[in-house]
Every structure is written in C-alpha cells, then in structure tokens.
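Write out this protein's structure.
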Amino acid sequence: MSAFDNLAKIFTHEQKLGCTDSAILGGLEEFLPNWAQQNLRNPDAPQHDYLNQIAEALRGYSKADVTTRRAMLERALARANEAANRARATSERAKPVEPRADRPANKRATPSGETPRPEPSAAMKLVAPAPEDLPEIEELEGEEEREAEPPRTRDVGLGLGADITRLQGVGDARAKSLAKLGVSKVEDLLYLFPRRYDDYRKLKSISELMYGEDVSLIAKVSTVTTRTVRGNFNITNVLLADQTGSINATFFRQPFLAKQLRPGMMIVVRGRVERDLNRLCFKHPEWERPRKNAAGIIPVYPLTEGLSSQWLRNLIRPVVEYWADKIPDSLARELRKRAGLMDLNVALHEIHFPTSNENLEHARRRLAFEEFLIIQIGVLRQRRQWRMEPGKALGVDPLFVEKFLRSLPYELTGAQQRALREIFGDIQQTAPMSRLLQGDVGSGKTVVAAAAMLIAVANGAQAALLAPTEILSEQHYKTIRKIVDGLGAALGKRPRVELLTGSMRPREKVELHAAIASGEVDLAVGTHALIQETVNFKELALAVIDEQHRFGVAQRSAIRQKGYNPHILVMSATPIPRTLALTVYGDLDLSILDEMPPGRQEIRTKWLDPRERERAYAFIRKQVTEGRQAFVICPLIEESEAIDARAAVEEYERLRGEVYPDLQVGLIHGKLRPAEKDEVMNAFRDKQIDVLVATSVVEVGIDVPNATVMLIEGADRFGLAQLHQFRGRVGRGEHQSYCMLLADKSGSTSDDRLTVIEKTQDGFRLAEEDLKLRGPGEFFGTRQSGLP
C-alpha cells in the first residue's frame, strides 16, 4: 500500500464526516505539508506533481462552505487515487512473477450455476484503517514518533468466527486479557461497545475544571515523582499543566510511570475531578498520548490489565471497517422502517466511531431495540414451552377464601386483593401459572403467597416456598405457621408446615425427605435444599420463589421438575420499573403491590456530610440506650488501596475499640460461611448485638423489628434500588426508624440519587429514577442463569 493510498483514505474519511474538516486535527491544509515531509522524501517528479495538484485542489478548504469543500475533496481524492494506482503499477512491474501454488485450476460453480466471489485476502478483509489508525507524526514538543501500524491478519480465510489470535498483534497474553472482556473471536470485537466517548471538540482547560465532573483534557507533564509508603505500596504524583493552570494526578502501584511520563510530554487525561486538601486533583485517571489526527468523538472501551485504549481502538477499527457492512441485518426492513431504526451496519459503525452525537444516539437505540427483542423472543419461547404441558387446575372455594381473610389480624390492601384475584384466576386453569409478584419492602407479599399455597393444600396437593437464605426461609416459615394457626379448622385438617435447610442434621433431612415424598408435609419451606435431587414431592401443585433475582431460569426449571408442571409464583422486593420487568421477565405475568399496609411508619431519611459522622454515632448511641439496635453498612469487606471507601472489617474494629467500647458490636459479610452468617444474624435478632457492621449481604431478607437505625457509609457508591433495600431493613417494628446516608464524595449523579431517596419512600418511583440515572445495570448487573 502506497502513501497515496493512505492519503486517499483520509480524504474518504473526511467525506464520511460530511466535509467538516475534522478528519485531521488542525485541518487538511495544515496536515498536507507534514504528510509530504514524512512520505515523499524520494525526489520522484510524478509524485510531487500529484502532490502539487492535490494541494491546489484543497487551497482554501478550511474557509470554504460545505458544497465547495465537497467538490474540492472530490478533485483531491481523484488525484490521490491516480497517484496510488501509478505507484501500484510501478511496483507490480518491478516485482518478479512467481507461480501461485494455491491458485485453483478451474473456477467452481455454485449449485445455482453462479460463479462464487473469490474469498478476499486477509489484508483485504481486515486492514482498512481509517485516518486515525494511519502512521503519523506526533508533534510533542519537537519529538517525532511514528505510531505502530494497526493489527493485520496473519493468513487468508479469516471469518467472523475466527479465533482472536488470528489478528496480528494478538498473542496468547493479549488473548487472555481480551477473554476477560468477553472477546474470543473476531465477531466479539464488533459487539465490544465503548463504555463512553471523549469529544475532542469539547476538551476542557485546567482552569475550567469543576469538582465532581468527569472530564478529558490535554496537558503537559511538568514533574513526575514516586514515593513508597506502607512497605512496597507505590504512589506516583504527576503535575500537569496547560496555558491556564496546573493540576496534580496521583497513580497507585504504577512506579513504571516515572519512566513512561517524561517532563515536557503532552498526554490526554480522563477521569473524575476530585479534591485533596481543598485542591482539585485526579486520582488514578486514564491517560494516553495525544495524536495529531485525533478529532471528533473518540470511543473509550472497557479495559483490563494488559490492554490500552489506543491499542484496542486500533484493533477494533479495521474489523468494524470491513465486517460491519457484511453482517446480515436480523431485523426485517419493514420493521426497521416502522420503528424508525438504523440499519445494523450503520449502527455498528456509529456505535464504535460516531460521526455525531445524534447518530450515536440512533445507533444506541437500534442496538438496544434488537437486544431487548431477542430477550423477549427467548423468554416468550420458554413460557410457551412451559405452558404446553398441562398442570393441575386448583379449585378456589369462595367460602374458604372468606374464612382465610377473616382469620387475618388485619385487612388486606386493595393491591393485595387485586393480586389474589389475578393469582386465583391463573391457578384455576390447567395451563401452569407463571407470575411475578412484585412489591416494595413491607407491602405484604408473603400473606398473598400463603393464601395461594393454602388453596393448593385445600385441593389435596402440596405447596413449596423457596428462599435464597436460611434466615429468610426461617422468617417465612414462622409467618406461614402463624397464618395456619390463625385459620384453625377452616381447612378441615391442620396443614403440616416444615422447614428444610442445608444446615439440618443428616438424620433430620432423611426423615423430612421421606415425609415430603409421602405427602405428609403439606407446605415445605426451605432454601436451595428444596431443589436437590434427593427431594421428591408426592403432588407438588404450587411453588413460590422469593427474591427471584437470586435465582435463575435454571432454578425455576428445577422446582418445576419436582411436580407435574406445578404453578409458579415468584416474588421480588426489588422495585423494577414495569416496562423493564415486562421486557426482561416476559415469561412471567406481572402483579404489583403498589400500596403499603395502613399504619406503617415512614423511615426518616437524612443525607449527611462526612463531617457529621460523629453526630450520627451519637444518635446511634442514643437509640441503643433506649433499647433499640442499629445497622452500619460499608461498601467493602476489607480496605483497598485503590478505592477510598470504608471497609467493614476495619470499621468493625474501629467502632468496637474506639467509638462503642461499651456496646456489643457485630460483623457480617459475604466471606463468612453460611453457618457463621446465621449465627451472627440470630444473635442480632435476639438482641445480643447492639450495632451490626455489615456489607450488602444484608440487602434482602433480614427482619429485625427492634432495629431502628440504618447508617450507610459510602452511600454515593450504591444505586437507588440498593439504598432503598438497605433502608427497608429497619422500620419493621412499632418504633420510629431512621436511615442516615454518609457520602464519601460529591458528584452530579450521586447527589441526584441521594436527594431523591431523601425525599421519597416509594420504591417504584426510586426505580424509575435509578433507571434514568444509571441505566438497567443496577437491576441486571449480574446475568441471571439461563437469561438469553
């Protein structure tokens, strides 16, 4: 490929950008002399003639209007292509002709009689670098460096399914790094979307920076110093400066930066502006060398150890340039037209290397539409398969329902009555029910589920309730026993309710397994132990799964195998916006408990500044003195050098030794064994612990009526849905309860979240706000087992 081929690609890229003079930083006219100095050192008269014609065609390009630029660019591109063809012809004449060992003797015809298109060479397939990937001059304080050429394929026959190591520059080490990002074959690169974008048209200067914002800027390295603390923990401080001021950037555990970042070097820095001793700074920002032709909107991809942003962009661009146009569109043309969606090939180009913010948004919408459509097709197909085989229709006796409602010490809310009508309507059909019962913390899901389970027992069948933890399953067991005791003789016989957990003695398990298999147990409550192969039911007609996001499709399928297509009711206390729930859980019908039982007290929520921590501690002490208990939530288990956040283990030691030496302080986190967690929670519930330090392990399923205070450290690190779940751990008794939010840092998004949760108790409104602020990742950050 000649230098003029590369120049022609730059002109073609400029055409794609709409002749905005943004393909090259500084513009085409300024770039051309530098390009000539770098590429036309051989005094070849024809080459210089072509160059002069191109320069003449582009004279005044930067000041011309778009129409004039388009014509000028067409003339320049024609001259560049002529020069490239001439160079190619000269090269071919000088090259000795050798026989091709792999040339086929005859052209093979397809069954239809058409001659197949020849397989393009590897270089033709993937090496189509746009201007950003071309070799170039970096003008960094008089220093000239040539960027490495983009990765090329190693041999012919490369396809979308080819292993990623077939790309030049991707060895075993980089392949392992890419595998951590979900990339193992060439096609995966097309769907490794940028996590954000840097708009080089809107770079900020240092004097314009504001605390808490995420920014990108170009600055010069002034000084670099490295020091070692705590043994071998390295901290590198880099002072950056531009014409408007200076700012310090701190890097952790990267002593090699002292050699990479030299005074006088220009770098691009990306990160959140933070504060240290009342001065703005960066902590562990991303950085890379600026490039002469960097312009417009630049993609920033997710990274892992061993990969750099620039290297990954250079790897992805030629793949997108060649393959994005060749992937068949899975959406019909009529559907795309009706929904106003981009074609897939355009969307892939724009999501990776957008030409405008508007096109980027259209590309994101198109790809999101397709992803949700595929999920819908998958879950609806699963639903159809489950409903194809009939289950047991359960009769609902109105007299029994009336007796059940009268036996309760309270009146059901309108939402609970509506949910019962929907569930009763489903279980009277032979097609097995698949329903999601969604309700905020304390909305009364368990009593609704208990009513459905007792209907199954009244029909001579069995019911089961599956919970994710032993503590939660024990709570459900006690609640259902209390409801059954209140019913008295309404069922004719007293239903047998039993609890099955993994921590039971082997002998107890064997006896309980036998009682379930014989039908002696009417209502079985338990953990994953209920879906073990050794557990068999005589006639399981209804299964209830609590905290459904802790179980996947595989677990729902396992509980179905325990009976003859039993009805399934799944429950969730995590508020999910209705539209999102209908999309992702399309295999389930939806019932929502959007009313709270009367008399439930509002949990008073207050967002505190870190300087008010002592005030929060004093309030906790006051509550404990009055006989109450408190939670202290920390975002981490153990202290991290890279993350400035309170850790549960260190906070436990500090609170126990310094703040509350006279109180009983407990600790619970995810690294404890299940038996240890249960022991701590039982002690807390039995009032043997005054203050419980915990991680997010207590997010769901903990019911301690005497706990009235929830203090959340690092509240800005949690989403609204999670904060709401934490808050729901208190306010379960007769006493007024409180939630205090301590934020480590300030930022626009975290400030918005904390303001919203301070003002509202409505979990569904919070879910909608979280969806706007953070996207659906808060609800589906961990891909569920079996989710398409």
